[in-house]
Amino acid sequence: MKKILFVLMLITASPAFAAGVYDRVMDSGTIRCGYIPYPPAMIVDPNTGEKSGIFYDVMNEIGKRLSLKVEWVQESGWGTFINDLKSDRFDLMCSAIWTNSARAREADHTEPLYYSAITGWVKAGDSRFDSGLKMLNDPQYSIATIDGETAATIAKTDFPQATLVSLPELSAVSDMALSVSTGKADITFLENYIAQGFLKTNPGTIKQAGEVLRLYGNAIYMKKGEHDLRLMIDDVIGEILNSGFLPELFEKYEVPEHSYLIPAKPYETAP
After folding, report:
1. 42 secondary structure, DSSP code
2. What is the C-alpha to C-alpha distance for residues 85 and 43, in angstroms, rounded to an integer?
């Protein structure tokens, strides 16, 4: 009998029987958030460590509506946040993370709060790509990229014959727009928020060209299999999207017009 009890104790103490993140959150009354600085979604003052931003405000609103405390426990990174979730360093990655197939294998995410469109940007006055970007797949055209950044991935996947004007890995993303505006490259691929921000300080220097090349949802991530936690957070995100909360945050953080795409409301007015 003692042997059976001992075996049962070992089984129930194993990771397979450990409480999930949802149970831990509800028992403690606290959501432990990881974060990655990435304005305007997550802004961290380098001097004081004070946090702000769209996802910071949204996450605190989620906690308020669920009567849960939100603790910002650890800064993470793009390449490490999934392992941090797996090792329970925090319950949610509460910064804006782009959804993609590689991450889908390793972690789950909420419904996106908004979408980031990646499009081509050329020097103002350049009309060569007004009818589309098919002709870009040619060595005579150059694409400004940063090593390891999304623009480089798009260039190698969609336009492998084009010439790359590669910038170092630690370059600012806006440097790709600068390369185009100064004629060092014919085109680059930018998130609309970055392009609109560049135009705000450098008006009339670049313009959009061609169709949307990629569309990424900005979502909150969690460990794989946290079904109950995801449904709970999704319900609150639905409330937020069906209110004026998100546009108010865009205005608060001075997000340039057309930078992000908000999901359409899931209904039509009855006749």
Report:
1. B
2. 21
**Residue 80 CB partners (closer than 8 Å, separation 6+):** none
- Say which CATH architecture domain 116-215 belongs to: 3-Layer(aba) Sandwich (3.40)
pLDDT tens across 51-84, in order?
Answer: 999 999 999 999 999 999 999 999 999 889 999 9
**DSSP conformation class of 184:** S
Predicted TM-score (pTM) of this structure: 0.82
Measured CA to CA, the distance from residue 42 to residue 22 in angstroms comes to 24
What is the reported pLDDT for 257?
85
| 179 neighbors 123 (Cβ within 8 angstroms) | no
Whole-number Å distance between alpha carbons of 161 and 184: 18
- Chain segment 95-105, per-residue pLDDT in tens: 999 998 889 99
What was the pLDDT predicted at 27? 97
Residues 173-195 have pLDDT tens digits of 899 999 999 999 999 999 999 99
Contact 92, 220 (CB under 8 A): yes
CATH 3.40.190.10 domain extents, the chain: 2-114+219-252, 116-215
Environment class of 50 (CB within 10 Å of its CB; exposed 0-12, middle 13-18, buried 19+): exposed
Closest-CA residue to 81 (of 211, 180, 219): 219
103: Cβ contacts below 8 Å, ≥ 6 apart: 82, 97, 109, 221
CATH of the domain spanning 2-114+219-252: 3.40.190.10
